[in-house]
């Protein structure tokens, strides 16, 4: 049977979905793409987003998708420079915490937090970014036992190559092809959800021989777009390979890893970036993602999309061909 895809917000450009189920309703927290006129470059300056909307639905493939409007904007954030990239939201004790990457006034990406008492927002930003935060693409995983973990990081425009051991380098540095790839980071959040509870740790992805994926293995190594979900007791870390345009995943036995590479979730879509969320809702699993088909291939004008995701009997995700 042919796979069914649905564009969720046909009237606007939305990308980088983070998706959660709160009180039986499915909420989508995407980036909000726009035509800002900023010229395309390797730094990603053309992804010049300035606000977030929240969407909700109770029927993923066929139901109404409600737009709850603008919930946070750059001009509301006290430490803002520019570029609101991929966000995520977590719930704890009746409060909702939105985590967002934004360049500060020195053009350095930091991760900020904004708080609301409902999943639709609006979200009120904290006065400063999270202490010790850097790079982009925060994804927050609720392990269901009172512990919340943030996965973050992104290469190139995401600035991860500027850091080692959580310290800024004098100059950005990429490992040689045969050296271990630059990893995503994982960090437990503090009880109040507003800070890191510890130093971020590298999230290591091993190959089939138990060796870390190398920097030259760019069809498998991490680039950006971290996401974590659990299936049958296993932890599934999924991510984009960036310049090879794949969504891949690796599995592990705990939130910190190590994780072992498993395969491709989604083949390249139209457009340079690929980014996703994997969620179970009403007994089915879904892959939320984006592509640039509606904008005729304009990389910075992406459209939100969803399809069902399936596992085989061993828990392997079946690769999805994009259309
Ligand atoms: O939306 C800007 C950036 O593009 C995101 O942070 C990356 O994951 C990529 O999708």
Question: What do these coordinates show?
Answer:
With 323 residues, this protein is mainly β. It has one domain: Glycosyl hydrolase domain, family 43 (Tachylectin-2, Chain A), CATH 2.115.10.20. It is 0% helix and 40% strand. The chain has no helices and 23 strands. The protein has strands at 5-7, 14-22, 25-32, 51-57, 66-73, 88-92, 95-103, 109-116, 124-125, 139-142, 148-152, 163-164, 167-168, 184-188, 201-203, 205-206, 224-231, 234-240, 247-252, 259-266, 277-281, 284-291, 303-308. The strands form 6 sheets. It has a 5-stranded mixed beta sheet, with no helix packed on it. The chain has a 4-stranded antiparallel beta sheet with strand order 1-23-22-21, with no helix packed on it. Strands 2-3-4-5 form a 4-stranded antiparallel beta sheet, with no helix packed on it. The protein is globular. The protein starts with a strand and ends in a 15-residue tail after the last strand. The model has no long low-confidence stretch (mean pLDDT 98). Residues 15-16, 31, 47, 85-86, 136-137, 154, 224-225, 273, 275 line the site of beta-L-arabinofuranose (FUB).
Beta strand count: 23
How far the N terminus sits from the C terminus, by CA atoms, comes to 14 Å
**Rg, Cα atoms, Å:** 18 Å
Here the CATH topology equals: Tachylectin-2, Chain A
Quickly give the CATH architecture.
Answer: 5 Propeller
| Percent range for β-strand residues | 35-45%
Taken together, the total number of domains comes to: 1
Number of helices in the DSSP assignment:
0
At the first level of CATH, what is the class? Mainly Beta
- How are strands sequenced across the largest beta sheet? 16-20-19-18-17
Shape: globular
User: By helix and strand content, what is the structural category?
Assistant: mainly beta
How would you sum up the major sheet? 5 strands, mixed
Bound molecules: beta-L-arabinofuranose
CATH superfamily annotation: Glycosyl hydrolase domain, family 43
- Chain-averaged pLDDT: 98
The helical percent reads under 10%
List the uncertain runs. Answer: none
């Amino acid at each position: 049977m042919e796979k069914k895809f649905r564009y969720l917000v046909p009237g606007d450009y939305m990308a980088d979905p983070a998706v959660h189920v709160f009180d039986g309703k499915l909420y989508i927290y995407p980036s909000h793409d726009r035509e800002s006129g900023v010229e395309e470059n390797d730094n990603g300056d053309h992804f010049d987003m300035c606000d977030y909307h929240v969407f909700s639905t109770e029927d993923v493939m066929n139901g109404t998708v409600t737009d709850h409007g603008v919930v946070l904007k750059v001009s509301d954030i006290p430490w803002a420079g520019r570029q609101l990239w991929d966000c995520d939201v977590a719930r704890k004790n009746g409060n909702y915490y939105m985590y967002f990457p934004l360049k500060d006034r020195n053009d350095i990406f930091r991760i900020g937090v904004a708080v609301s008492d409902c999943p639709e927002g609006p979200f009120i930003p904290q006065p400063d970014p999270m202490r010790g935060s850097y790079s982009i693409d925060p994804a927050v995983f609720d392990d269901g036992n009172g512990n919340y973990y943030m996965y973050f990081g992104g290469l190139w425009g995401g600035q991860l190559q500027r850091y080692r051991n959580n310290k800024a380098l004098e100059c950005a540095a990429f490992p040689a092809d045969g050296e271990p790839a630059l990893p995503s980071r994982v960090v437990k959040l503090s009880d109040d959800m507003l800070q890191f509870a510890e130093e971020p740790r590298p999230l290591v992805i091993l190959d089939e021989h138990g060796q870390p994926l190398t920097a030259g293995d760019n069809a498998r190594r991490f680039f950006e777009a971290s996401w974590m979900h659990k299936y049958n007791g296993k932890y599934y870390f999924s991510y984009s390979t960036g310049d090879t345009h794949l969504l891949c995943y690796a599995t592990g036995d705990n939130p910190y890893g190590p994780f072992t590479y498993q395969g491709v979730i989604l083949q390249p879509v139209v457009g340079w970036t690929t980014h996703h969320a994997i969620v179970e809702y009403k007994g089915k699993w879904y892959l939320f993602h984006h592509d640039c088909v509606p904008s005729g291939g304009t990389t910075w004008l992406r459209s939100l999309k969803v399809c069902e995701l399936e596992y085989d009997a061993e828990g392997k995700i079946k690769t999805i061909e994009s259309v």
